[in-house]
Write a structure and sequence with these properties.
six-stranded parallel sheet; four-stranded parallel sheet; about 45% helix; disordered N terminus
Length: about 350
């Protein structure tokens, strides 16, 4: 590092210092910093070593003026703010995406858009070029955000397949239908035959696919479908409790419940306790996610594990590839049945 002429304070190292340390031109250093195109492996290694030795830090503002990029990514949650703090899945996903982007020295901006006004403001911000791409979480059918981002040419990766957009938008998802099938198959293997479900929102891909898996397994097992055994929820704990109360009222002989999220399953357990039903002796309960809510429940929940680390890292990988010019891609990841005390 060089010394200033006033006060003896060290000046931050510049691109010229890196070039001198590496024994290359300033242009070579610039090309390494902007993707390494047309740079030999030996020169790139020398530049990266010089960056480490000098402690050089990229001036993001200056680079953005050259590249036309912001060098940041948005994490957009289209849910009310209170849902972000209630549902542990969002925090797990946010943490994983932040860590995955940190490996590429890219900061993540959290954006909450649960109302139309919030969506309009955030869409203006995004389409003005303040982020290079968006990780979209919790897209509902009829929600225009994904389509508006796609039409604006903003690189986008959704968590879950956006309903109605097919292959037009990149997405990363757990295999919701297969996970639901595994859980209902497990409940049947325990001898349960009056298996109810509390669904997720049926305007979301997870809600639709998990209900479809539930129906398929019962049909294959020759268990008569009973619409009284299906109650809708919205992934909140309160909706799980209300859904279980409806199930008990309509079908008091229910002996198992597949719940489309662990947080809702906590509400189901509370309703069963109030009704004097023992878990799992009277009613077996299975959740979905393997979030912190599963192990915090009493009894601990048998659930379907979503591979959150892989989901977040794949979302980041696909988004960065799209920012780099690649076409949209879809990734579906397997789930896993985790057995605990509730079944």
């Amino acid at each position: 590092m060089t010394m200033s002429n006033t006060g003896g304070r060290r000046k931050p190292p510049t691109i010229h210092d890196v070039a001198r340390e590496a024994g290359v031109s300033r242009g070579t250093v610039s090309r390494v910093l902007n993707g390494g195109h047309y740079v030999s492996p030996s020169a790139a290694e020398a530049v990266n070593a010089a960056i480490r030795r000098t402690g050089y830090v990229v001036n993001r503002h200056a680079r953005s003026l050259i590249t036309g990029r912001s060098d940041s990514v948005g994490f957009l949650l289209t849910e009310p703010q209170e849902r972000f703090f209630e549902d542990p899945n969002f925090n797990v996903l946010l943490r994983g995406c932040t860590q995955a982007l940190a490996a590429h020295d890219v900061p993540l901006l959290l954006m909450l858009a649960g109302t139309q006004d919030e969506r309009r403001r955030i869409m203006r911000y995004i389409t003005a070029g303040h982020v290079d791409g968006v990780l979209l979480v919790s897209s509902h059918s009829g929600d225009p955000v994904a389509e508006e981002l796609r039409e604006a040419g903003v690189p986008l990766v959704a968590c879950g397949k956006p309903i109605g957009l097919g292959s037009k938008v990149s997405y990363v998802a757990a295999d919701d239908r297969d996970g639901a099938r595994d859980m209902v198959t497990h409940l049947l293997s325990l001898g349960r035959r009056r298996i109810g479900t509390v669904t997720g929102p049926l305007d979301t891909p997870g809600g639709v696919e998990r209900l479809a898996g539930y129906r398929e397994v019962l049909a294959e097992a020759g268990v008569e479908a009973d619409e009284r055994l299906i109650a809708s929820g919205d992934y909140s704990r309160a909706s799980g409790e209300a859904g279980a109360e409806r199930l008990l009222d309509r079908a008091p002989d229910v002996d198992a419940v597949f719940v489309a999220s662990d947080l809702m399953a906590q509400g189901v357990l509370a309703a069963l306790r109030k009704a004097g039903r023992r878990v799992p002796e009277d009613v077996a309960v299975g959740g979905f996610d393997d979030s912190p809510a599963a192990t915090a429940a009493a009894p601990a929940l048998t659930t379907i594990r979503q591979p959150w680390d892989r989901i977040s890292s794949e979302m980041v990988r696909v988004l960065l590839a799209q920012i780099g010019g690649e076409d949209p891609a879809a990734v579906i990841l397997p789930t896993e049945l985790v057995r605990r005390e509730s079944t």
